[in-house]
Amino acid sequence: MNRIFETPLYPYARNPDQDAEAPVRHPVIVVGAGPVGLAAALDLGQQGVPVVVLDENDKVSHGSRAICFSKRTLEIAQRLGVARPLTDRGVQWNLGKVFFGDRKVYEFNLLPETGHRQPAFINLQQYHLEHDMIDRLRAMQAEGAPIDLRGGNRVTGIEPRPDHVALSIDTPDGPYRLEAEYLVACDGAGSPLREMLGLGFQGRVFEDNFLIADVIMQADFPTERWFWFDPPFNPGQSALLHKQPDGVWRIDLQLGWDIDREKEKDPARVTARIRQMLGPEVEFDLEWVSIYTFQCRRMERFRHGRVLFAGDAAHQVSPFGARGANSGFQDTDNLCWKLRLVVSGAAPETLLDSYDVERVQAADENILNSTRSTDFITPKSRTSRLFRDAVLDLAEHHAFARPFVNSGRLSVPAIHDGSTLNSPDALPGGPARTRPGAPCPDAPLGDGYLLDRLGDGFTLMALGRDAPEIPGTTPLALTGVTDDLRTRYLGHAASALYLIRPDQHVAARWAEATPAQIKAALTRATKGQP
Ligand SMILES: Cc1cc2nc3c(=O)[nH]c(=O)nc-3n(C[C@H](O)[C@H](O)[C@H](O)COP(=O)(O)OP(=O)(O)OC[C@H]3O[C@@H](n4cnc5c(N)ncnc54)[C@H](O)[C@@H]3O)c2cc1C
Fold first, then answer.
1. Residue 481 · residue 52 · CB < 8 Å
2. I want to staple 495 with a disulfide (CB 3.0 to 4.6 A). Which of 94, 380, 385, 464 is the partner?
3. 113 pLDDT exceeds 60?
């Protein structure tokens, strides 16, 4: 059995801040070193923003949590220099199959298009992801990145002030205080900071229980996502099978609402259920068993003055669609460049309002998708079950019914249509997928890929023409336009200019633009107000 979750990776160590006469003030403090807090730490550290990360724990998270990490998460990880170990170890998959009873009714390919560095998804235990992120953080520290990760530091109090946030922290050596110009709250679904600030959560609790069993077995099922509606081995409910590294398989069985949770977790009972699913001849061991319920909900706002909420602390979804940690990565991707500009005085604080607007928009999209999936997977009335079963029956033979099959619409990044950071689209005939607000799709470029050429700042990308020199942007002129670039960025246009944000979302695009128009778009994208 893998035991990396038992090893302290950032054990408590006394810090000089604890002996200072007055609380020491830091530009940014991140609370929580889960995947989202670690992503914030790597991003800020890479951009040279000094960051202190506080976590009450000192290890990676334990148990069956996230396994599916999306293409966009891997692209963000690539920018942060940590994609390689994730994709090397992770199980790559693009194909999903859907079964109804014992018949396959439908299959889908999440990445039907070639020419992307990253696969549609990898499966990787969350503890491996966190471990690789901490390895990356250590490597960055060794190269001088200003990241200070403090284990055994539990935040017990928070006081928002006009020009800073004051924190009370408990440690094995007793309490101390710190101040932050800005605080990023990544303290998870139970968010003590949210509670301490008396902030609410809106949304819906689902009345259902799911059994998660991570089992170790040598099986030759293909590396695909298999989802069953009403399978013979779990009648009236759903089931999911996913391969993870180290010979571990994720089995997720819907149990219904009125169950005895303790009885259902009994290893003998779980083993019997899994035997029914896999057949009597398959040998397996249980690595982890848990029962979970879930909510789809979010905070009303993610920005509260100098406190910015991200990840599960800000929003939660059902696991169908793998939108939890994946959307948390997109939160910090969106936030960290804005924090850098604000902390350095290069942008006004109002830029941070656009974090709130854009990521609330994304959270609503994720909640909508994951709620729809959950309603389809676990119909709560006779009528919705009849509709669901009819769709599944039709999908086996009729293509028109397949888009209605919803076994989880898997995580894709939100397009920030209507964001105040966008300039009006000025590329007639340009592809809709790269309109202002959209994340840039990758494409092969020379020996590498396009996204590798976009740095941590603003890029002015020119296709089929020269890139003008505009202060505050890095020019990227692509004169030889490949078919992939043409399809993804030009459409029917002959040439184009794209202003690309540090988080690789399009801020503006033109067929032709004067330097004054480009400067105006840059100002708009860094001001946060129209
Ligand atoms: C069964 C299951 C399956 C899932 N599958 C997927 C999936 O396939 N893909 C996906 O993207 N997501 C999935 N998720 C969701 C994913 O696990 C979460 O979205 C993710 O862990 C959120 O990360 P986070 O960093 O926001 O919070 P967390 O991982 O919860 O981290 C919060 C951190 O804050 C620290 N902390 C809390 N309070 C304090 C305090 N007072 N002081 C200091 N530190 C504190 C904690 O110690 C912890 O380290 C799944 C979840 C479950 C339960």
1. no
2. 464
3. yes
CA of 88 to the centre of ligand 1 (A): 23
Query: Per-residue confidence at 3, pLDDT binned at 50, 70, 90?
Result: confident
Atom of ligand 1 nearest to the CA of 130: 29
Distance CA 368, CA 329 (A): 19
Q: What is the pLDDT of residue 1?
A: 47
Question: Residues lining ligand 1, CB < 6 A?
Answer: 31-37, 54-57, 61, 64-68, 126, 154-155, 186-189, 192, 212, 292, 311-313, 319, 322, 324-326, 328
Segment 224-246, tens digit of pLDDT: 889 999 999 999 899 999 999 99
Atom of ligand 1 nearest to the CA of 310: 26
Name, in order, each residue with C-beta under 8 angstroms of 182's C-beta and a sequence gap of 6 or more: 27, 28, 29, 165, 306, 307, 308, 339, 342, 343
Buried-state track 334-352, b at ≥16 Cβ within 10 A, e below 16: bbbbbbbbbbeeebeeebb
Q: Taking the complete model, does pTM exceed 0.85, yes or no?
A: yes
| Closest C-alpha residue for ligand 1 atom 9 | 322
The span from the CA of 508 to the CA of 459, in Å, is: 11
Centre of ligand 1 to C-alpha 189, Å, is 7
Distance CA 250, CA 120 (A): 18
**pLDDT single digits (tens) 278-336:** 988 889 999 999 998 888 899 999 999 999 999 999 999 887 778 899 999 999 999 99
Q: Residue 315 region, left (φ>0) first, then alpha (ψ -120 to 50), else beta?
A: beta
The single residue listed with the structure tokens 């619409």 is 409
3-state secondary structure of 65: coil
Q: Cα of 339 to ligand 1 centre, how many Å?
A: 22
Beta strands in 32-164 (DSSP E): 51-54, 68-70, 91-93, 95-100, 103-109, 121-123, 147-150, 154-160
Of the candidates 457, 243, 450, the residue with the CA atom closest to the CA atom of residue 344: 457
Which of 68, 325, 300, 318 is closest to 207 using CA atoms? 318
Q: Quick one: which of 196, 159, 409 has its CA closest to 305?
A: 159
Q: Out of 36, 43, 121, 330, give the residue to mutate to test ligand 1, the one with the largest number of ligand atoms within 8 Å of its CB.
A: 36
Three-point CA angle 510, 515, 518, nearest 5°: 50
pLDDT score at 379: 85
Which mutation among 183, 186, 249 tests ligand 1's pocket best, with the greatest number of atoms within 8 A of CB? 186
pLDDT band (50, 70, 90) for residue 530: low
Query: With contact defined as beta carbons under 8 Å apart, do 215 and 286 qualify?
Result: yes
For the cut 70, the answer to whether the pLDDT of residue 27 exceeds it is yes
* Model confidence pLDDT, tens digit, residues 466-485: 999 999 999 999 988 999 99
